[in-house]
Specification:
Elements lengths: L6 H5 L20 H21 L8 H11 L6 H12 L4 H22 L9 E2 L2 E2 L1 H4 L2 H20 L7 H15 L4 H10 L7 H26 L8 H24 L2 H4 L5 H4 L5 H5 L1 H17 L9 H12 L3
Antiparallel strand pairs: 1-2
Length: about 325
């Protein structure tokens, strides 16, 4: 799952980029094509969750309402967009791609619901509205997150996602790896420990490769899995995912310092307040900005053997550091 040359090796001596960093000036507007794609995936995700989560007239009603609160409306929907863009490279059926995209969004939202709990980050605002434990209660929030986690694997294992059971098994296996102790959950544990430890650049990079990068890696690899591309042919896509995952996190760290809470729809500045090591605290803001631009250039270079069918992935790579939330 990891290329021979680790991202932390490259991060140790950031290449100097000749490009100006978008965050140093006004935020660049995404291209019309990317705006249309983002609007389209946002509508598709809301539609999918509306269909998947009808509210029953029984004692489970509150649980379904909490799940709908967490999943419908708001959010960048970057991960499902990456899934559909990756699937498009291999001409995967649109409806099947949307099922995989919905599964990854289930896992992502599950992580947000649980991260916001008092036992974790203790946040009151998410995607511009009250967090689930604030809008409902902590027990309901835990069950809502658990249910979304289960729904993700239900979607992937269903024959409607792909006719080939081996493809479905690989999707389930890779998402489990990306979301468990060797992926997102492990990264979150490292993040919690960061409040009590001093992390160097290599450790911060490893943390973010797990917490953020593992799910982004699955999003890109999902298209190759659905398109039946053998693992040995996936190196460029893995390189792209690895680099935009790190660039995305550096941009998040920058926004945590320079961004607007009103635009972001969540509390900012918490990492610095808790004394956590981030790319900014380790690299310094100017070096971090140069690094993020270099990573985006590197990510785009990984797509060199693709034609115009990869343009959306190239636009997404640039957007990771040009966004304002």
């Amino acid at each position: 799952r990891v290329l021979k040359r680790s991202a932390s090796d490259r991060m140790a001596d950031p290449p100097v980029s000749t490009h100006s960093m978008a965050a140093e000036g006004p935020v660049a507007a995404p291209s019309p094509g990317l705006v249309a794609a983002m609007d389209g995936i946002a509508e598709a995700m809301d539609r999918q969750f509306d269909l998947l989560l009808p509210v029953p007239e029984d004692p489970r009603r509150r649980l379904f309402e909490a799940m709908r609160h967490a999943t419908i409306g708001g959010g960048k929907r970057l991960r499902p967009l990456l899934v559909t863009a990756s699937c498009a490279l291999f001409h995967v059926d649109t409806e099947a791609a949307l099922r995989v995209a919905t599964a990854i969004e289930c896992i992502h939202v599950h992580s947000l619901v649980h991260d916001d709990l008092p036992a974790m980050d203790n946040d009151d605002l998410r995607r511009g509205k009250p967090t689930v434990h604030k809008a409902f209660d902590e027990a309901t929030a835990i069950l809502a997150g658990d249910s979304l986690h289960a729904l993700a694997f239900e979607l992937l294992a269903d024959e409607a996602t792909h006719s080939d059971p081996f493809v479905r098994c690989e999707l389930v296996l890779e998402l489990a790896r990306a979301s468990g102790p060797d992926g997102m959950a492990g990264g979150q544990m490292m993040d919690l420990e960061a409040e009590h430890r001093t992390y160097d650049l290599q450790t911060v990079t490893r943390l973010q490769q797990l917490k953020t990068g593992a799910l982004i890696g699955f999003c890109i690899e999902a298209g190759a899995i659905m398109g039946r591309l053998p693992p040995e042919g996936r190196a460029p896509l893995r390189g792209y995912a690895r680099d935009i995952g790190l660039a995305f996190q550096i941009a998040d760290d920058i926004l945590d310092v320079e961004g607007s809470e009103e635009v972001a729809g969540k509390a900012l500045g918490k990492d610095a307040g808790q004394g956590k090591a981030t790319f900014l605290s380790v690299l310094g803001i100017e070096r971090a900005k140069l690094q993020s631009r270099a990573l985006v250039d590197q990510a785009i270079a990984h797509l060199g053997h693709f034609g115009s069918e990869a343009d959306l992935l190239r636009q997404i790579a640039r957007f990771t550091i040009e966004r304002d939330k």
